[in-house]
Amino acid sequence: MLQLTSLRQIRDRIRSVESTEKITHAMEVVSVSKMQSTNRMLSSSEGYFKMLEDILRGALSGADTVKNPLLEKRNKIRNTAICVFTSDTGLCGVYNHTILKFVDEFVSKIGREKVILFAAGKKGAAHFLKEGMKLRRMFPEMHGRYSYEAGQEMLKSLMDIFLTGEADEVYNLYAASKTSSRVVPKAEKFLNVEFRSEKRQEYIFDPNVNSVVSKILPEYLAQKIKIVTLNAFVSEHYARLTAMTKATDNARELSDSLIMLRNKVRQANITNELIDIISSAESVNK
Q1: What b/e readout covers 33-44, taking b as 16+ CB neighbours within 10 angstroms?
Q2: Helix 2-61 and helix 209-285: axis angle, to 10°?
Q3: Does domain 29-241 have CATH number 3.40.1380.10?
Q4: Among 4, 18, 240, 270, which residue's Cβ finds the most Cβ atoms within 10 Å?
């Protein structure tokens, strides 16, 4: 009876593991689809962003005095605003842990009292609240899908905090890994906008360089937010794909070992039954 109960438990365990395997495999397939579509969107957006960046870089290198508040470099950095990109959901391996560890190190170098936090992703917001860090704002949940409206909200909030002087610089902290499951966190300056000094180029601007730059800058920053967000989402989907692939493989291995155990227990039960039958037959013959 004990062996029958044990066999029943093994069968229940096999059904449970197989059910888990189906779920993780389904999530694996979904992650592949999301990762591919987000990667395509990122690749198509990078061309436009690069064009804007080249125009802006050329305009700034070819003019002696370009005045725009978004270009202003503050001599004294009193406060730094950072926008942290994490996922809204879990089951993506070490993705959030790696980013948040990087963020903690970044904040510790600046000093908590000098940091103004923005969160794009529930996991990051929950981490900051747990650590007792004041969160200025959490942006709308996107669940791994880029939203123009959410992008505009981020852009407005980050521009406002810089233009009002509440923050003297703004950084985006996110993961960027287009072709690998490895999570690569990076801190990228968002404001003020600045480029490395390059060879001077001659341009003719109509009506003037300041007018052209003032038109290009907001669009450039909007596209930069989009590129950062898409990079973060591609990295998230890669991480979740890797985690779900490993989980599916582990479930299959466990299922195979349980099936072998079930067969051994079943064979042992059959053997015991045969021994009982033979023993009974011999007793009757005596």
Answers
A1: ebbeebbebbee
A2: 170
A3: yes
A4: 240
